[in-house]
Every structure is written in structure tokens, then in C-alpha cells.
Amino acid sequence: MDGTRPRDPQSLRSVGTNGFPYRFTRVSPGAKASGDLAKHTAEIRYVFGNLEPAEAYDEVDAQLSRDMQEAWSTFARTGAPEVRGREWPRYRQGEAEVTVLGDQVGFESLVVEPLTAIIASQRRS
Fold it and tell me: How far apart are CA 106 and CA 121, in angstroms?
């Protein structure tokens, strides 16, 4: 490896690394009350089980946090995240799936929006 960091899922292939894309969509009751949406880094509290203040979260959040902790620890042990016995889909060009972390954990096709494709093409140039 030349010391450069992959910047998008496709570039992971060039360094022989698996990617497991996910989209965090959960908006907790406390976030809804304050007008916040799912945003960058919002998932960190869930990964570490730090759902405080408690009144801002509910049982859906607690279950999602447990699922995310399971996925992250399985990834650390095996190299592939897994939730309730199902391994997260790996990024594969042309047939990409993404794990969706919302009111429940699900899987759907990864859709690359036109603007995202333009930004990614500029990174490669």
C-alpha cells in the first residue's frame, strides 16, 4: 500500500480491503423534539452505548445501540460486521447493497445519486 487512504467504496478494491457501507437514519425522540435529523457522527453514541440523557432515547434506540455494538464487535473479531446472525453486505461494484441503521436494521440497494457520482469522479481525477 502506498500510504494513501481510500476515499470511496470503489477505491477499497485497489488496496484489497472489504468495505461495508452503511447509512444511519435513526432520529431519536429527543432529536425530533429539537428539530435535529440523522446527521454525521450521530451514530457514535449508539456504537458506544452512550444514549444520554436517557429521556432523549427510547427502546428502539436501545435496541439499535445493542445491534450496532454487536456489529462493531463482530467486525473487530472477524473482519465482517454481523447483526443477529446476518453478515452485512460487502461493497461490490455494480451490485452494491448498504446496511440501513434506522428504526430497525435493514439492507437495501446502494443508490449513488448523480451529485455523489460527480463528487466521486472529481476525487479520482
Answer: 28
